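Quality-control log, excerpt.
Job 1 of 2 completed; input and output follow.
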Amino acid sequence: MLDGGQMPTRLIDLKRKGVGSDTIRLVSTKDWKQGEHYIALSHCWGNLTELQKSSWCTSPANFKTREQEFLVSSLPATFRDAINVSQELGKRYLWIDSLCIIQGPDGDWDTEAEKMETVFRNAYCTIAATSATDSTKGFLDRPPRTSTLQYATIPNSSHGPVYISTSIDNFSSDVEEGVLNGRAWVLQERALSRRTIHFTERQTYWECGGGIRCESLTFMKNGKVSFRADPEFPNSVKADKRDNEAEIKLFQSLFEDYTSLGLSHNTDRPIAIKSLAIELAKTFETNVRYGIFECYLHRSLLWYRFQDSPMERIWDKSDIPSWSWMAYSGKIKFLQANAYESDEWDPNVQLLRNIPDEAASDSESSGFLLQARLASLYGIEVKGSGHVIRDGSGFEIGQLWFDNQQYSSSKEVLCCVVGRRKEPCTKQHYYVLLVRKGLKDGIYERIGMGSIAKCCLQFNNPDVRVRIS
């Protein structure tokens, strides 16, 4: 763990009471000194039955009992394997979400979910149960190999000895495409972990900021997604002295990947990435509101529904605004605008604090509205959920993307200007949010995004600014 790093609220104490003892216990870290080593488990819950949840998970009903002791043998195979690995590594304490967070409506999931950043960042290492499709499968009993490890040596190559082996080190297939890394929560867990041991069906991989080591002793780098194993991430973004364009590409690719991953509960969409987004905001020296970075406000808003993937509004108590991709299920893409210097961003686009209750003090709970200039679509008949706009000669002069397929009436579709390309007046292209009037008087809601030629827009009153919830 990092010196001075915050401890998780609870850990599992793996120290047995005696030889042959099969008991462990849950301990509070409230009065502990900071810096105690512990290991964190990253795993798939799977589709647990209510009986399994009640017997495995910590709940208000069994919490006090587990502070005394509980049986290792009562836990599923994945948890037992994590206990064995932790003890082999010589570490006394282990963090497992369903054991260390009190589950259920009277538990403390809401508050503990906010601390995921510190749990994985400050862990000595993370055990990734990559091959386990659920908690019952375990990850240490790998299928027997069809052949023994064999290799040939070419000692006199121009770059030194070369080893040719029948055992394939395929980190992309074994880890990146594995079941575990198809889960949305895991992207954040892996990116925030300082070092990770991946247990796959084929072999075990060690991953840290220095690269990847395989059982065959092969060393490899992880290219495009190297930040997910960088112990200094996201501070290394600044250390790399990335330019603005690189920072934009980083958060856009991160959020695009995140929205393609699975969640058991769609209402977790803003939560499962929140800690990572906050860390990025600190590095960018800005604020982040619902996945929108204020320093890159305009670029953050230019997301759209990916191909024909369905997007449905997620209705829950968090009341995420319509201009945030966190408000919807489904995969997104960001508009790949021109080079950063070749775009002009409309200064009327601003985030405004919305405080319906004067007693509200938290910036997220009080909410934000988006302000922008209003315009009308001119000479366009809107049909379907996606629409290519062509001029009289058949040339494409724009495209509209709707967040879902219910907006087929052009009469209700308006737009708000986000920015435009730096081009001659006759060729100017605008980036817009598609909006319609909301339920509240004077408030609009986003229904899509577009990139269209100036001739397709009509500014009835250029000074009119509206608010989008």
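Job 2 of 2 completed; input and output follow.
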Amino acid sequence: MLPNELLASLNPQYPTLTTQLRTLTTLLSYPTLPSPPSLLLYGPALSIPGGLPEHALRSVLEGSDNVEFRWINCVETITPRLLFEAVVGGDVWVEEGDEVRSESPRMGDLTTFVVAVRQAYFLRTTKIVLVFSSAHLLTSLNLPTLLQTLTSLSTLTSITSLTTVLLTPHPPRHLPSQPSISFPTPPPTSLTALISSLPFPRIPFSPISDTDSDWEEHEYEARENAWWEVLASYWPRFVDTIQKTLGINSAEQLQGACERLWPRFLKPLRNGRESWSPGTGGTFMGLYRSAVASGLFRGEEGVRARLLLGDEGEEGGRVGQYDLPYTAKMLLIAAFLASYNPARLDTRYFSKGGGAPTRRRKGGAVAKEIRKQDAKISQRLLGPRPFPLERMLAIFHSLLDEEDNAGLMRGNVDVSRQVATLGTLRLLVKTGAGDGVGDGGGRWRVNVGWEVVRGLGRSIGVEVERFLAE
């Protein structure tokens, strides 16, 4: 697409970024004009991964002819080697005499990195754009001249068609002067306006009752056209509702959430519980009330739409769960039981002799005690309680013995390191005093719910219900 045509097609989608779009297309999209060696995009809006500025830049690069780009997310490149491999990607071409062969890059420092970049891109005939999202995180890699090297890649590799684009909330210090584009904070409505302008998922029209299926062809076409008009009027309001309800600030995540929840939101229309007609266009508030009553925005579907952007996963699969090792899963189950079970029942549930308790006939003093307990509020409603680390570890070892799964912990497993990892992931939260996991002091609290723990238990063959006090 020609730059003028590209700009004309993008301006209606990004009405608040017309100046920035014109500058980007001028610097990057013209195939006959040289692009700058480096470009800095900064502003508060770039602190949100996948936000409006990143979405606009990706649209410019995807719509430009004769331009190849590689998008590097610096959130994922936590080591220099991961960063170098993300930039080079795959094998590189190496000249050896009159022959050109491919080999895997060997990168140890910035010098070999520059050589690998030249070997990877020197045969390209198109413009090459390397985009570094969240580039301010690169300062944590302990490479003092990394940013200067990235901005000078075109000069160091002698590839004039190579451009480095850095995306950061604020301009980094000690960076050479270079072209820059400022992105101010967009208004809250700009994100919903962008997603509303995109085509909505097509939900096919189907007659509800048997009498509706007897329509003539022209009647069916009229009703189908009215159906599309109703959906087109609902789509902008639905996008605004999803953005405000789930609090999504990323364009990519908002689009994925809307596409995933749109069919379920329209379900009352399709099964006839909510009426609609060409004259009135149906009732959006009726659909909204049905969605709230069914827990669409606060239930599993709403959370899944907010957190996941990939495949839906199969029914009953491990969707949205951490891929934790066996020891970490067992520790998380033990932490949940320590948070929600009273400490006085640990002997009953986790003693080596009996395992989970069997139900006995209730009578006398036992029945009186149980009736007293029934008057208390369930701990699941009160939330998790803090527990000492020693208690969680005792429950952990008891579960291993009870389930005969100690053999699954192959090798020299450092349990304290696994606990520290769970704390880093915020699956366990430290609430008491203490310097760390190994000090023996302090108290912890589990930070996951029942559904997650039950799924982890099923994945490793542990029936968590047997050890949970009601």
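Post-run check on job 2. The mean pLDDT is 77.
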